Amino acid sequence: MTGSIRWRLALIGVLILGSGVVLLPTLDVALPAWFRALAPIEPINLGLDLQGGMYLGLQVETEKAVEGALERYAAETRDVMRKKQISYATLERVPNGQIRVSLTQAQAGDLLVAAVRDELPGLRVLGTGTRDGQAQVTLGLDPREASHIQESAVRQALETIRNRVDQFGVREPMIVQEGDRGIIIQLPGLRDPQRAIDLIGKTAQLELKLVDEQHSLEEALRGSVPEGSELLYERKTDRQTGQVTRTPYLLKKRALMTGEGITDARVQLGQFSEPYVSLTFDSRGARAFERITGEHVKERLAIVLDGTVYSAPVIQERISGGRAQITGQFTEDEVRDLAIVLRAGALPAPVKINQNVTVGPSLGRDSIEKGVRATVIGGLAVILFMLLYYRLSGLIADLALFLNVLFLMAALAALNATLTLPGIAGIALTVGMAVDSNVLIFERIREELRAGKPIRAAVEAGYDRALVAIIDSHVTTLITAVVLFQFGTGPIKGFAVTLSLGVLINLFTAVVSTRVIFDMILRRRVLKTLSI
């Protein structure tokens, strides 16, 4: 054998051996621990349509994001008036997304209008006037600002949910936007649907608020909640009995700090092995936390998440270093999920679950069986056709077909790709394409033989002259597959992955694998006829 044949055979042998090793976990072969340590390859991932799981359709309540933005603008308007020394009597939210400011001096209205235009471009002045001898200015969100807030809320919610799901540990999830406010989530192989729903749907808005100790909690419980305060509860669950107790707290409405400055949230164990969440703030958050704790020593600071009080400790001294703790009677899953949502960030607006479908694995088994059956039947039909029409050369093409499927499945496992039902359709299509290149080569060889060329020259000319057509057809198919992968979602991407891998592998098996077999046969003996 020449050196060219040797290195091609060596390359094919290495690929066959490597493919077999990569596919061992998928074949559910019992492997020793040392082998798994050396080759940590996972089985081929199956999509939602094959192994079952959860399908969620969410809708982002973007109007809540607009309301939150209006609250922030109301606070910023107070700060601007304080900075500009504009005295006011009241500043209140009114229906239809408006802010109404009553000023103590008539001429202060023009000052407020000018200040809003200069420093609060997201607001616009809806009207001015007087009432009960006081100047009044009505403010509202600019329509472009409101539209931007809604669009940003959906994009941020998509990214936040993706971060939470990634940390939850679901392999190959699909999370895409649908329409203006919708989000579609597919979680293949999920075993705890309710926990996933709780994790995904939690707004995770962390707030630090002072306990209102100037007013009576008992009167608030009877319905007399003071203006500027609110009544919230701490929920505790007994681990043995499962009984839930609710402890009321009267808190000041204004949040001294939110969770925007959190950079990390980790599960830690306390002195008696009770789990808690340790928070780390960024530099800005650390300064704010140090200032807040320094200004309110000996006061109680409540840690509130989504309207539920988790703890309300007394501030003993100024806390520096940018660290805080959330303690409570948590289970392991609760404290872990709490850390996940705080680490991933708060949703900009609540999400509502419109669709919640759990797909059973029995449907997946049925799909796999039908898909494999169709692929096998199609493959056998192709194999028989090649044997009957091209005889011994057809057998060589069938061997290339076997290598094509072997390498394709190994590539899916090595790349940790997800196999879906459309992906199986892509494999079936690849089976047909795998012999298409050999058909072009064999027909070209036949033409060369009919022209009177020797067998070796005919084979070489057949491969050389068919190569351009083969490359052209595969490149155009590959471009289509890349476009489908780039702009498609879910099942379309699964089809594009198997198609693109199949095209690339087919180029190798058709041009290199079959060629080396012909070269071996022709170098070992002088043939008078070629079975083609």
Structure keywords:
elongated; Gyrase A, domain 2; 22% strand; alpha+beta; four-stranded antiparallel sheet; Multidrug efflux transporter AcrB transmembrane fold; 19 strands; 532 residues; 3 domains
Radius of gyration: 34 Å
Strand composition percent: 15-25%
Strand order of the largest sheet: 7-8-2-18
Q: Could you describe the largest sheet, including whether it forms a barrel? A: 4 strands, antiparallel
Please state the oligomeric state of the protein chains shown. Answer: single chain
Count of all domains: 3
**Spatial shape:** elongated
CATH architecture of the largest domain: Up-down Bundle
For CATH, the homologous superfamily of the largest domain is named as Multidrug efflux transporter AcrB transmembrane domain
Count of helix runs: 14
Uncertain segments are none
Percentage of helical residues? 40-55%
Q: Count of DSSP E strands?
A: 19
Distance N terminus to C terminus? 24 Å
CATH class of the largest domain equals Mainly Alpha
What's the average pLDDT?
79
Reported by name, the CATH topology of the largest domain is Multidrug efflux transporter AcrB transmembrane fold
Q: How does the helix and strand content classify structurally? A: alpha+beta
